[in-house]
Amino acid sequence: MHIAITGAAGFLGQRLVRQLVKRGELDGRAIRRLTLIDQVEPPAPDAGAIEIVSRALDITTPGGLDSVLAERPDVIHHLAAVVSSAAEADLDLGMKVNFDATRSLLEGCRRHGLAETRLVMASSVAAYGGELPEVLDDMTAVQPQNSYGTQKAMCELLINDYSRRGLVDGRVLRLPTIVIRPGRPNAAASSFASSILREPLSGEEAICPVPLDQELFVLSPSRVIEALILAAEVPGEALGAFRALMLPGITVSVAEMLDTLREVAGDEAVARVRHEPDERIRSLVASWPARFDTARADRLGFRRDADFGEIVDAYLAERS
Amino acid sequence: MHIAITGAAGFLGQRLVRQLVKRGELDGRAIRRLTLIDQVEPPAPDAGAIEIVSRALDITTPGGLDSVLAERPDVIHHLAAVVSSAAEADLDLGMKVNFDATRSLLEGCRRHGLAETRLVMASSVAAYGGELPEVLDDMTAVQPQNSYGTQKAMCELLINDYSRRGLVDGRVLRLPTIVIRPGRPNAAASSFASSILREPLSGEEAICPVPLDQELFVLSPSRVIEALILAAEVPGEALGAFRALMLPGITVSVAEMLDTLREVAGDEAVARVRHEPDERIRSLVASWPARFDTARADRLGFRRDADFGEIVDAYLAERS
Known about the structure:
The first copy, chain A, is an alpha/beta fold. The first copy, chain A, has helices spanning 11-23, 66-69, 84-89, 91-111, 147-164, 191-201, 221-233, 254-270, 279-286, 295-300, 308-319, and strands at residues 2-6, 25-26, 29-30, 33-38, 51-56, 75-78, 118-124, 169-175, 177-178, 206-208, 215-219, 244-246, 250-253, 273-275. Helices cover 40% and strands 18% of the residues of chain A.
């Protein structure tokens, strides 16, 4: 089993690599090789019997992945992407990295006859937008209100069509908001969702720009990694008529997140969260759907966190 | 008012040109110029005071429309496309004509600063597919099961994003099955829908490959042309959060179509329809949605035919 990972130097990429090394197998077959691809050579963990090859490759050059595709990987985890704020700030960059590079990857699979290769792409809840129903399901229209979501939705359609035509065996996961991300606050509108837990748990202050009753649809990093692996294991036909699906998550309000923080770290931790309403962030976050019926993904075995307490506990266990 | 039309030599293009010449105005402004674009110079009708320029241009060459865009048309009707059977037979051709050419057109509008230009693209009911609900509405997911529908759905997303970013003022109409098309039977799976009326009305035989209870969602050619004109007249904001919408149509079964034929032309006309079940066509046509709640389009003033009798009467009036 040879698995290639684009965006392997990123947060999810590095976690996926570590988890694959720890498991040593995928879909019942021993992992022999991992090819880690990013703009710079991705760090490679000590992997015992698994051969790890780190490559600095430009996925935006047509054919840029040919040397990897020629080795006929069994699975490709395509995680490389320009994040939503960057795609919004620079349409050309977003189209080039998020859309054109995915199309080139699909064409590469076609050219190399990789009909059996399981291509797993990460899409996002940001693909949804517009006048949405109270609860979304697998048949809710994708009407993105940002360029990142647009580019991801176009990739979903293309991966579905290439899969339907038997040119590759694609699967796309729409990821919920991932919490708790490690690191520092950043420019992403969703940054606060990790920050209001992570910083107080480290004795630092955090800013909450949205009202307490704002709901979010969230999933922990370890569940996302589990999902990326399961997505490469389920039979393509099991996905039904469309190769993209929304991952299960849990719906939590900011108030519930802070209640959990209180249970875990007391009133003094909650007091470290300053409430500074930010209308731009509030309206953006309010436009994200927070309630989903993910029946199809549930049936396929994708799992949500039990509750927000489990997400915080897992974060603390990893940090220690 | 300067209107440019791609695919102007086609069935819809030629009808649109004639109707625009007949009206002489669009959105309350006199039409001064029509630029007709196709692979070969489109035929131009006698147009009185309206200047008609016919151009043979290759829209698949990036910048191929620059000479037209430099004249800053107020409206572009983008009808050029490779039909569904051709797009299914040749993925590269479909991507090039249906998707890349549309993207080039959007980029051309961006480069020429045509933020106010109203770009109207024809999409299709073929964008829908998969496990659909009984009645579709504006929030039903687009999960195409053919490359034509995939390419059109990708264009919808891109036009929506370019419009949201203020780079062009786009609108996309998903067309129902158009009946009664003039001409002869062709390779399209929907060909029978026109043929089982058109041929018997001319005293010829026709073949019906689907069961009598098969339903279709149909619209007459003249209503489609009305819709293409109205789409250029409605304010972009009126379309709401997504720039593509399904046009109203009427749901008719093959039995109802033949009942109408009987009323108009008698039993001997109906007897000219031979029933020769074709499993390939049957299963394809059965996958097309036939029932829509088009509330948004209805509110915007798009109109369906009153009933199937009106469609047949209009065809006979035009033919005579």
